[in-house]
Design goal:
The complex is a heterodimer of chains A (90) and B (151).
Chain A: H1 5-15, H2 19-30, H3 35-40, H4 46-76, H5 81-88
Chain B: H1 5-26, H2 30-49, H3 54-65, H4 70-86, H5 88-98, H6 102-111, H7 120-150
The chains are: A mainly alpha (90), B mainly alpha (151).
Chain lengths: 90, 151
Amino acid sequence: MIMSSSCKLSLASSRRASEGEISELIFKLQALLPERNRRELRRVSKEESLREVCSYIKKLNKEVDDLSERLFQLLASTVDADALTIILQL
Amino acid sequence: MSLNLKSLRTRFALRFIRALKKIHHQEKSFNKRYYKVKVAADASMAAAVGPRRAWSRALLSRARLGWRCRAQSRRESVECWRRKRMHGHGHARAAEGQGQGQAQAQELRSLVPGGEAMDLQNLLDETAHYIKCLTTQVNVMRGIVNCCSTS
């Protein structure tokens, strides 16, 4: 297969990301964290950033669990699911 | 890949509400309802995203195999634990050598669907997308709960 030199280069770089690329991705992840956590993360290690990201994902999953439980209780009550659609105007 | 949050929110909400209707009408067992709601939420989000992301593909294939395979995922996590035990020292050496958050990266792999198979760069990229979608999922679910609570 004939490859141009630029194509070969991009293949090589896609095999292993540079430290800079990893740092940039971690920085982008930091931007997704809640404001409160983000402010404290301005000068922290990559390990700490990843730790914060992990705990945020766990927190989101816990919220999904809690909201699922609430929704299950609401379904068990007299709520009509058709009314839901109307309320949300979807 | 850019993410249109408004369109994602609508696609997720439509699917999820449809699933809630089904659970409301079909599921008589109270015990199963909570689990079905949670599974419907995750499945609706994965379907709204479609197969263009590794994490959503992982969830969609889990759905195809049957979400009831809690046993399977339990087996998988036992296997993962066993592998970690066996190669624990190797991991420690790697961590010493690189010291770039290996343990945290491993934890992240266990939290993002399909994460075990990803290299670090893909994992971080998938995580960003996954967090945005999870946040959207939580916001829509919270909105539905608030609507129902006040109506």
